[in-house]
Amino acid sequence: MIELDGLTKHYGDTVAVDDLTFTVRPGIVTGFLGPNGAGKSTTMRMMLDLDNPTSGTVRIDGRHYRQLQDPLTYIGALLEAKAVHGGRSAANHLLCLAQSNGIPRSRVAEVLDTVGLSSVAKKRVKGFSLGMNQRLGIAAALLGDPQVLLFDEPVNGLDPEGIHWIRNLMKNLAAQGRTVFVSSHLMSEMALTADHLVVIGQGRLMADTSMKDFIHQN
Ligand code: ADP
Ligand code: ADP
Question: Start and end of every ABC transporter domain (predicted)?
Fold first, then answer.
């Protein structure tokens, strides 16, 4: 579960996130919909303690991020393409991440299998396509077997097969009882993945409703 209470972020005169209060529940996929610049990434970065709120709080399963021991075992995220040190192999990259985050090394082979990268585990990340990089990012998010998962615009730039695969993965993670929070600027994408919808515009909460009710009302 993720609980936001009055979450606010100012960058100088820009109010990127404006007093957001909502809860992301386990066992379903919650979509986070809003146009570009609405504040979705900033909100997710604050959920991961990568950015400090101006005011308000985020709790992950009842605790502040900084109170979590080995945070990657509580929350994993696929953020917008973050460069992986390209000279390393996929397995090596994940092994380093596991070692510095209190995660057993046996998880590396498991997550590589989950994302379909076992056959290229020893290949350098430098030669990976966008789709393979995306899968590696997901492997990293899943490495600590966290109950809470964030996906920031995960289908951007992927081919239809990759898009289909990610949608199914998110649904399966939710069906396992996990909390899945996924952002998109496209309602058409949300309609295919999300059970519940949180809508923001200019940093403010516009709707927090089941997908069914949202479609009825709009
Ligand atoms: P979204 O993810 O919905 O596209 P963002 O969270 O990236 O939106 O951006 C929300 C607003 O905050 C935008 O106006 C953006 O320009 C601004 N913003 C985001 N990050 C920064 C930053 N590091 N410095 C200044 N302004 C920022
Ligand atoms: P570093 O440069 O040390 O890798 P980052 O800026 O990547 O640091 O991350 C800062 C913090 O955010 C770390 O404590 C890490 O636990 C958390 N973090 C980064 N990426 C993720 C992710 N994909 N999932 C969950 N937490 C993350």
Answer: 2-218
